[in-house]
Amino acid sequence: MIYKVIAKSEFKRFTDALLRDNTSFGPRQVDTDSRGTAVYQFLPVTSSDDVAFDYTATASSAKHFFLPFREELSRFLFRDQEFDQQITYEANPIVLIGLRACDISALNILDDVLLHGHFPSPYYLAKRKNTFVIGMDHLPLPDCFCKSMSHHTISTGFNVFCSDIGEDYYLSINSSKAFNFLKEFDTRDPHDDDNCRLVERRKIISNSFLSEVDVTALPSILDIEFDSPVWEKWGNKCLNCGTCAMVCPTCYCYSVEESFDTNLKGATRQKKLYSCNLVDFAEVAG
Description:
Layout: E1 2-7, H1 8-21, E2 24-32, E3 38-44, E4 70-79, E5 82-86, E6 94-99, H2 101-114, H3 122-129, E7 131-136, E8 160-164, E9 168-173, H4 176-182, H5 192-207, H6 218-224, H7 230-235, H8 243-247, E10 254-260, E11 266-273
C-alpha cells in the first residue's frame, strides 16, 4: 500500500480526466421516495460534477457490475450433426467511483467465493480485473450497522481509497495502475499532521455509528434454533419474490437457462441471478 495526500481541487482534476476517458459509473440522484428522501443509483458519469459525492446509500449495490442479472455463458452454432461452442471471458474496462467501505467489503466477500474459492468464475474475474474502483469514506447513516460486522474499514479490494481530511484527501493506493495514473497529478507524501487528521477522521466515523447489531455466536445460535417456530412466522410473510437476494450485495446464487434461436441454427446458455430462498431453486425436470 502506498499513501499520498492530494488537494481536493487536484483530486477533481484527476477524476475528471479518469471519468472523461473511460466508461465510468458513480452515484447519482434518480428520484425521491415518499418521505422526500433522495434515492441514488450507480449511473454513467463523465465528470466529477456528475457524481453525488455526498450521497447516502444507493438503491442497489455495485454487485450488478460484476454479477449482472442475466449473463450469456456460451453460444452454440449448429451445422449438420455437429455444433460449435463459443465462450468468451471478455469485459470492457470501467471505472466505479464513490463506493463506500461496506460496498467494497461486500466485493471482497464475493472475491473469496468467486475468485479464491474452489471453483473460480472466469466471467467474474474478467469483470473484477477490468474495473477501477475508487472508494470514498463517509459518516454513517443512523441505520448503518457495518461496524457491528467489522466492515466499516477496508485495506483491500480497491484501486484508490479516499479519506476526507479537510481540504485534502488522504489516498490509500492499492494498485500499480492507480499509482501510475496519479503520477500525472500533484500529490505529496503524508506529513505527521496528515496522519493525525486521518486518525481523527477514522475516530469520528467509528464513534458516529448509532446502530449496533450483536452478532456474538450468531452461527451457533442459528444452528441451535434451526427448528424454531420463528422461521415459520417470518416465512409465512415471505412473498417469494427474490428481491432480498437482488439487493443483497453478497448474494450470488444463480440459475442456468438454455434457449434455442427461432431458426434452430443456434442456442445460448445464460446465467441468471436467482435466490436460494425461492421454492423452485435448483429444481430440475423429473
